[in-house]
Amino acid sequence: MCADFPMKYILVTGGVISGIGKGIIASSIGTILKSCGLRVTAIKIDPYINIDAGTFSPYEHGEVFVLNDGGEVDLDLGNYERFLDISLYKDNNITTGKIYQHVINKERHGDYLGKTVQVVPHITDAVQEWVMNQAKVPVDDDKKEPQICVIELGGTIGDIEGMPFVEAFRQFQFKAKRENFCNIHVSLVPQPNATGEQKTKPTQNSVRALRGLGLSPDLIVCRSAKPIEMAVKEKISMFCHVEPEQVIFIHDVSSTYRVPILLEEQGIIKYFKQRLNLPIDDQPSDLLMKWKKMACRYERLLKVCSIALVGKYTKLSDCYASVFKALEHSALAINYKLDLMYIDSTELECSTEAENSVKYHQAWQKLCKADGILVPGGFGIRGTEGKLQAISWARKKKKPFLGVCLGMQLAVVEFARNCLNWEDANSTEFDPGTKNPVVIDMPEHNPGDMGGTMRLGKRRTVFKTENSVLRKLYGDEIFVEERHRHRYEVNPELTHCFEEKGLKFVGHDTEGNRMEIIELENHPYFVGVQFHPEFSSRPMKPSPPYLGLLLAATGTLNAYLQRGCKLSPSDSYSDLSDDSSPEKEFPYSDTS
To answer: What residues contact residue 129 under an 8 Å CB cut-off, 6+ apart?
Structure first.
């Protein structure tokens, strides 16, 4: 491990447009530095006034990512955790709302007594203090203080709401000193179809705006659809006042696993070593080699497993970013390429047939041909009948099924209606007056406030029986700890009725009052979990419930269980060479 040295700060800003991959770039930089033996943490700054992301519609900013401490944060923190294999905290996500609330509380307390509270210096000072304090918080299992802090500033340079943060870092670069502060600017290089020429003017204007605000980029990362020509690199170097080696190109690639490799190939380790005076080798460790092998493996997979994701936010893939990643991690671990089919649950409902028979039949066609079915979490009554239809299909046709949060609750509702003959069974979220409330409000639910009032964060689930598929998938542990985000729970007073008919509640909370895991007898894989296991999935450590779904969908679950669940993701990547054959079979295949 490297010797201790002053904290190094790497600020990642964006230009031209938002959504060009600053989060992946920041995560990849952190991964590269971690592969060099450094301890890395990450902070995301979102300039919106909301306190956190908890009250957003997924269509606003994608999914709401939940941390161990219950923080509801931007999905980029999910990228940081997956890439770096760390556990972040709610204070690793800074918003304008949090900063202003913090300063206003201090003002009311009298900390600024006699002074006029202003954006400069009070808001900007609060930003700097927050970053410096949070950068020291351990995020690895060894509980040691980080050495590198990667900070992503959301939005684009020039946004009015981001100005206080830009000013804060203009001041901060002098406070931290040049050898401890580095700015990376991510910009778009468009290529209009009319001319086919890659245009540098947007990047030039963006860098000019950044410099006008007092920050000079040390590295310019150019995003493009296709690989950028050397002449473009030289032009950006000349007009943006940086050396050619300070211009990095990242074009669209087959998977995000390739991004750290592209950065490393362009000499970013050597640059950071010199620019930040880091005591590291020029070559990365085995960690980055595993990423390279993982990327090669991903690109060479031939066998395909199709999963139908039945949800209500299917128009934007970022709404289910962690679910997609958890499925992808699991598919990759067993040498399958994931074919994820998004199905709008409203299109499965009978009422849709009269309105749009084409969409109705297309949705059911997708569902029927899928190897497995997943119903994720969500809120609100819209689309729930379609989800119930999909769950019923999975149960009757013995199709592998995983229900997460609301997906588990609806599985209980569907079973109550069709197996217990409780026709009006429902959740009190959708029908407060139902005579058979199989899903009910939690006692601590506070309907007065919407933000931060749910059961949030890491909670313990205890297995109540050894005869559990999920317990075996988790390595035969007595309990597991996973992240939660819900307001409703299965009614514990009615569980005996379900268990008599074969729907087993195999996992409870520590008090035994809350139902956490369901499993259906005599079914290849019919599992529901109240928690969100996707938030803890990692590229080399796939989530057990999702891995079980992929194993069942590919017909390899029984063989995997019989062999003692010996699949080791680390072994899967360490034994691969760059010329690995894509035909290499999953070692626990039923056909082996």
So the answer is: none
